[in-house]
Amino acid sequence: MVDAVRWVGSGAVVVVGLGWALWVVDPTAPSSPIQPWIITGVMAANVAVTVAAPVMKRRAVMIVQRWGVNPVVRAMFRIGFVPFGFALIETTGRRTGRTRTVPVGNGRVGDTFWLVAEHGLRAGYVANIRANPDVRVRLRIGLRFVWIEGVAIVLVGDDPSARQREFCGLRPLRWLNAMNVRAFGASPVTVRIDLDMSSSLGRVPRLRGERSAERSSPAAQ
Questions:
Q1: Would you list the DSSP string of the chain?
Q2: Tell me, what's the pLDDT at 207?
Q3: Which of 58, 84, 137, 168 could form a disulfide with 174 if both were Cys (CB 3.0 to 4.6 A apart)?
């Protein structure tokens, strides 16, 4: 179990530090440090709310992400203007059976895609994965974006902090996303997706659930 104060606090410290650093180096910034002080106050309140009312914080963050952040990032993917460091994960709704897409940080390492869900098992896409592990990931390979099929597993016993350090490495954009995950989450969980890289090379994709059926059939054993 991750210490929520340490998890959120580490992300908040980085966000505050960046806020002050930008104020110092930006020649067009106001002479009064009102902006970095606002960021500092917001992050301090964020840590306090995480401790005092984690459920309220999770609901507030999820509302902002669902209706504010996620639609913008999905729209950017549709028009092909996507910041480096982002990816989309497509799951199957556990109740509706419809496809659901959510933006995540790009944690691809070879044939494996790693991500840390800041809301843990309460995240909608994590619950979808636990019901149906067949997913697709849309990410940048070279100069183009491709959909890649994969099979996901939620690693409840994994250490999200150590895993972030591993897949972020020396990539600053991954660390920027990781600090946002830490600042606005509280109960993180690691998700590993084993990618089928050949599915991005023009092969006819299989239907959802087909891989699961193949793995469970006697012929596949």
A1: ---HHHHHHHHHHHHHHHHHHHHHH-TTS-SSTHHHHHHHHHHHHHHHHHHH-HHHHHHHHHHHIIIIIHHHHHHHHHHT---TTEEEEEEE-TTT--EEEEEEE--EETTEEEEEETTGGGSHHHHHHHH--EEEEEEEETTEEEEEEEEEEEETTS-HHHHHHHHHTT-HHHHHHHHHHHHH-SS-EEEEEEEEGGGGTTPPPPPTTHHHHHHHSGGG-
A2: 38
A3: 168
Paired with 146 in beta bridges are 139
Looking at residue 117, what is its pLDDT?
93
pTM: 0.75
CA–CA distance from 94 to each of 115, 190, 215 (Å)? Answer: 20, 20, 20
Question: What average pLDDT does range 70-92 have in this prediction?
Answer: 79
